[in-house]
Amino acid sequence: MKVAIIMGSDSDWGVMKAAVETLKKFSVEVEVTVASAHRTPQKVHDFVKNSDAQIFIAAAGMAAHLAGVVASFTTKPVIGVPINSEPFKGLDSLLSTVQMPGGIPVATMAVNGAKNAALFATEILALQDDELAKKLISYREQMAAEIEIKDKELGASF
Ligand code: RP5
User: Does the pTM exceed 0.90?
Assistant: First the structure.
């Protein structure tokens, strides 16, 4: 099982490394490439067509057409991560990624939602992997336990 992460620029790495860290936490194989829908469209095409990944995560900022272009080349699930960028703080990236025309879906995460992109990819893979599904349940349980600890700590400080 493999997830491929495509970033429009190396400047997206600061956000997207959280996706790699999260996928590694679940022992999901991940490959990362920089390929731009506008600057290197042929590279995007060739990468998607030759990739053996089951899921693509595409991250881009500004006029963020990368996820949609990736989705145009494959019927595998594509998860879009709009990247926060100036001057519109990621609203431009969000709308460019989420407003896909009917027929070519992109599962769009929040602006800078790298961690959730990785978790969503893991959830899709877990549909056919019981071990992965168990890991996701443990992850949720651990998260809930951490919130209880934080709640107790906060309550104790008044
Ligand atoms: C997008 O333009 C990239 O995904 C990046 O978020 C943004 C700016 O790219 P750089 O000018 O930093 O390479 O295509």
Answer: yes
